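In response to the reviewer comment on reproducibility (Comment 2.3), we provide here a single inverse folding case reported in full, input and output, so that an independent group could reproduce the run without further information from us. The structure tokens appear first.
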């Protein structure tokens, strides 16, 4: 897409974004955040006009209904798109990034520095990792039923091994920790090269955003700090903080469930540690996991994981309150039944998570510090 076409497209999309912000029948923007029912967001994302400089017979919409021009604007100039049409962008991402575009969109939204790692990644693989044996031990346990990873020594397992080995050398403070393979797996399942997946993984782990582009004219940094590495450092400070925040949020918003957990000695560490350390990939099906990843890249890791945790607990609250003892509560929390209530429909989970959006904010989380 040339510069003139990109500018024209962004101008048209910006007008659509303004229409969304001003139309109370479809969406409400309050305090800089999107307020709408998830079904409304999905309808907006699927039915909004396709904006294109092409002739009407070539209107930029793929045969599967994908709004090619909108997603192209993300790839060509994410910073400007985020700045000019944040509400439309949020609606689109929450409704689900088209699967065949996820690799590009995830890479773009994360700010992955693929060019930097094109030369560095092979150098890392030439080094010896002190975690080599542990990584090799864990690889067969990662998505063993998926065709990409099920063959011992197969291409999928080798990609996973090399990426984890490379990261263990790149970030010596983290090295390797159980759970990381479940974070990497969903990246490799997209149409990404190893280097691209490594670059995105590094961005998910980093606790600072990448350098802002020198020629950027937008007032705010377009990329987030996902800070997943704080969950995997030896002290696991990020994990402890998120578990504390989840406990406090349950106390504030689900008081009956909080009391029930307290009565039976159930703590967030016992069930949510696995959710957070694997970004839900260990406990929930991949179609839902990919939707969670979509929103993580756009809205942040901690905020997104806490919203989905609260939503799932809220949806299952009645069933959890019926469990009479510690074993029953924990069995439900750690099993597959939590998702069964959604009848294998990821859209319902996303809708629930967006329904508790206001329960979790960056400012609110900042006030929740251990001790």
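Designed residues, in position order:
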């Amino acid at each position: 897409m040339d510069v003139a076409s990109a500018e024209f497209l962004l101008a048209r999309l910006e007008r659509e974004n303004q229409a969304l912000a001003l139309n109370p029948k479809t969406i409400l923007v309050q305090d800089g955040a999107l307020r709408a029912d998830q079904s409304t967001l999905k309808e907006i994302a699927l039915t909004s006009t396709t904006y294109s400089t092409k002739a009407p017979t070539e209107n930029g919409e793929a045969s599967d209904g994908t709004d090619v021009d909108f997603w192209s604007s993300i790839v060509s100039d994410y910073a400007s798109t985020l700045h000019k049409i944040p509400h439309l962008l949020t609606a689109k991402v929450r409704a689900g990034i088209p699967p065949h575009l996820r690799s590009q969109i995830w890479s773009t939204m994360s700010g992955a520095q693929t060019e930097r790692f094109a030369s560095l990644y092979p150098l890392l693989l030439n080094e010896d990792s002190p975690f080599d044996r542990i990584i090799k031990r864990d690889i067969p346990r990662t998505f063993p039923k998926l065709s990409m990873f099920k063959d011992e020594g197969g291409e999928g397992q080798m990609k996973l091994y090399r990426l984890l080995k490379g990261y263990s050398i790149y970030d010596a403070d983290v090295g390797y920790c159980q759970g990381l393979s479940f974070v990497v797996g969903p990246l490799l399942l997209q149409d990404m090269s190893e280097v691209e997946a490594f670059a995105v993984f590094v961005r998910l782990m980093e606790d600072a955003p990448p350098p802002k582009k020198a020629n950027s004219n937008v007032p705010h940094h377009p990329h987030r700090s996902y800070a997943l590495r704080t969950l995997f450092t030896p002290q696991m400070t990020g994990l402890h903080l998120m578990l504390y925040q989840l406990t406090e949020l349950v106390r504030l918003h689900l008081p009956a469930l909080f009391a029930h957990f307290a009565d039976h000695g159930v703590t967030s560490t016992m069930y949510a540690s696995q959710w957070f350390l694997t970004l839900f990939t260990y406990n929930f099906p991949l179609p839902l996991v990919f939707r969670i990843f979509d929103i993580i890249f756009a809205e942040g890791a901690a905020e997104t994981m806490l919203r989905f945790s609260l939503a799932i607990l809220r949806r299952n609250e009645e069933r959890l309150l019926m469990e009479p003892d510690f074993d029953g509560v924990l069995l439900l929390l750690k099993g597959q039944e939590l998702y069964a209530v959604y009848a294998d429909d990821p859209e319902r989970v996303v809708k629930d998570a967006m329904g508790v959006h206001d329960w979790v904010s960056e400012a609110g989380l900042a006030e929740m510090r251990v001790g």
